[in-house]
Design goal:
Length: 447
Amino acid sequence: MSTTERSLHFNLFIHDTGHHEASWRLPESEPLAHIDVAYHQRLARIAEDAKFDSLFLADSPALWGDPGRRPSGRLEPTVLLTALAAVTSRIGLIATASTSYNDPYNLARRFSSLDHISGGRAGWNIVTTAGDAAARNFGLESQPAHADRYERAAEFIEVSTKLWDSWEDDAVVADKDRGVHAESDRVHPIAHAGKYFQVDGALNVPRSPQAHPLLVQAGSSEDGKDFAARYAEAVFTAQPTWEEGQAFYADVKRRAAAVGRDPEGVKILPGIVPVIGDTEAQALELEAELDRLIQPEYAKLQLATLIGLDPALLVLDRELPADLPDEDEIEGAKSRYTLVVELARRERLTVRQLIGRLGGGRGHRTFTGTPVQVADTIEHWFRTGAADGFNIMPAVLPSGLEVFVERVLPILRERGLFRTEYTGGTLREHYGLPRPANQFAPALVNA
Ligand SMILES: Cc1cc2nc3c(=O)[nH]c(=O)nc-3n(C[C@H](O)[C@H](O)[C@H](O)COP(=O)(O)O)c2cc1C
């Protein structure tokens, strides 16, 4: 593959024993996988051996779901990724962290630390966190309004980038003879005074290998897409059909161009749940076996939480109520709400059927089929402007990852669509993205 040729990007989305709601009930699944560092290290090594660009951990600062019914609670992502950094050397490490329930100084420092520790492999999935459960852990009665959460997120990024730039690259000189460790005039206070944050700076960590962690974004509402267009370098998104995927891709690239960015600088990665069998029938049987393990009443509660509706409105053997609110009236996860409601309406699904459809990936596209069929679909989305790569969300881990790596990647490599070796050292280099310039450093004058 020549270096100028466009090639696929793969991110592994690690989610406990797999993305299927019932995966923990399979004989192969480890009961304590979600809090087991060695388990995550094994997955990280498999993904790195397969030359994935990155791996990713989701997060919310609240206990999700009923701990009686599925593995609940997880390790804090930046802490866990530090343990993964120690046993890997190339793969990118992306942690989710909320702009609604953190402060920029602490979080900028944590990501800068992870970037130093990993040698330039840190990424931040920037989320605004939907739902009242998290708000109630931070002294609030309910979540701040959707628009306010995104406004705070924008200022949060502005402060964070100032903090990451507060040390110039060559500020540290460690000149033992002169007794000067850093040139003080290259360490800048940021003196930020805004609506949400007042931060003097500078950061208490020197500039890291990537300067800024890779900035990833994962909300697909109108505000979310504008935010992505302005700040994100990679976008995670749930797109249930190719048509919707292509429209989303074009929309975000257009918005990026409209704010003066190179659209190539924003990589769009829809989530896919690959369910792979030697034959199509075997793949379908695997999917059906998992769906049989779903507990419908519990899954109904999960669905209500996912889309922020009162569970009493959902009746298992009926369609969704006709008079649901519009997306404008939703203060939680707007785009996921619309995705789920449109899917149910389009196919006239009962709540029970809808749960079956969402059980595998909470609205992400499931590609079920043989390795060639899965590779064909990936290639189709990639070549027709619906994806720059994919967020791989195996229904069952680690087996779903192993099958994807052993059966699908060789086909994509044969077609020249995916790397056989890493060519870069940092996460930005894997995604073909530049290292940010420093807003405080004097502009370089060409000699
Ligand atoms: C692949 C993927 C992973 C996500 N991970 C998280 C997460 O870990 N935590 C979180 O609060 N939101 C996460 N989100 C984003 C939520 O879906 C988002 O909060 C929601 O879509 C609200 O954004 P919106 O209102 O702009 O649609 C993720 C989204 C996608 C597509």
